[in-house]
Specification:
It contains five helices and eleven strands. It is an alpha+beta fold. The chain has two domains: about 130 residues, 2-Layer Sandwich (Ribosomal Protein S5, domain 2), CATH 3.30.230.30; about 60 residues, Alpha-Beta Plaits. The strands form three sheets. A five-stranded antiparallel β-sheet has the order 2-3-6-4-5, sandwiched between helices. Strands 9-10-8-11 form a four-stranded antiparallel β-sheet, covered by helices on one side. A two-stranded antiparallel sheet has the order 1-7. The protein is elongated, with a radius of gyration of 23 Å. The model has no long low-confidence stretch (mean pLDDT about 95).
Amino acid sequence: MKDQYLTIAGPSEGIYKEKGSKFLAFAYQARNEENIKQHLESLRKNYHDARHHCFAWRLGPELSRYRVSDDGEPSGSAGKPIYAQIKSRKLSDLLVVVVRYFGGTKLGVGGLINAYRSAASDALDRSSIIERRVYDRLKVEFEYERMNAVMKVIKDLQLEFEEQEFDLNCSLTLKSWKRQTELVFDSFSKIEACKISLIEE
């Protein structure tokens, strides 16, 4: 399992023009398919008079979930060249849509491939690329008198709190960067009467 990957910091736009046709490109960060659906619906509404809304997306740190759409353009002439731009930059958790306004002159398959690739590339070139870490969620259960020892591990390893419950028996839900989860388990297991477990998503 990968513990980090690249995505874009926020929305960006690009454009490519050829023989009267305009190709407007939009890149969005997307966490899931519901996000993607919302962005596509919004673009179709805002650019309802455009001839095509072609797109490609990829999700997750494994870089294995993706989809491409030619939206009525010749097969392989739009979605694949858009996806190639995502792939070449090793990006994930994003959607790139290219909206085409037809200018009256056919570009041919080669011309379309170049146009969709260039528009997508322009949008991604204008975006800020950020690194995103992959986290595990952990549950730590311990007796109240072990609080100081537990808090020291949390501070030393810079773990993030998600939920906390303090009583005679305490319970914490923490976020740990996947790269250091083994160390986290090892550190908590050295504390007497402290139980740690991985929360399966």
